[in-house]
Amino acid sequence: PFVSNWSARMFIHSSNSHSASMQFDEFKGLIVFDMKANGSNGTSLKYDLSLGEGSFTISYAYSEAEEDRGEILKISGGEKKEDTFALPKEGTFYLLVESDGTAKTGNFHFDLTK
């Protein structure tokens, strides 16, 4: 499985099978959230993101096989993004949130929706 590997300052995060969030002053690395898309949780991922500095790539993976991975979006410093991404299939997946170097002042929220 994917393994979170990160360092952070003033970092708060939470997650369950249908939502995940993280707020930080500084963050560097990868955090992995386990989520489950289905009829009751929803099969689209709604996101609301803001980032002060740096950049992140947000992606999903159903397994460690390369063909089971896909990019959801990239966000750079100074941007705010809010949208919904339709997941390609139901089931348990990894939400991969990875910074490119050190990022600052982030507020990320993800929720599965129908």
How does the SSE layout of this entry go?
Layout lengths: L4 E11 L3 E19 L6 E10 L1 E7 L7 E8 L3 E7 L4 E23 L1
Antiparallel strand pairs: 1-2, 2-7, 3-6, 3-7, 4-5, 4-7
Order of helices and strands: EEEEEEE
The radius of gyration over CA amounts to 13 Å
Q: Roughly how much helix do the residues carry, as a percent range?
A: under 10%
**Count of helical segments?**
0
State the low-pLDDT regions, or none.
none
Quick recap:
With 114 residues, the protein is an all-beta fold. It has strands at residues 5-15, 19-37, 44-53, 55-61, 69-76, 80-86, 91-113. It is built from no helices and 7 strands.
Keywords:
mainly beta, 114 residues, seven-stranded antiparallel β-sheet
Describe this structure as you would to a colleague.
- The protein has no helices and seven strands.
- By secondary structure, it is mainly β.
- A hairpin with a 3-residue loop joins strand 1 and strand 2 (19-37).
- Strands 1, 2, 3, 4, 5, 6 and 7 form a seven-stranded antiparallel β-sheet that branches.
- The model has no long low-confidence stretch (mean pLDDT 96).
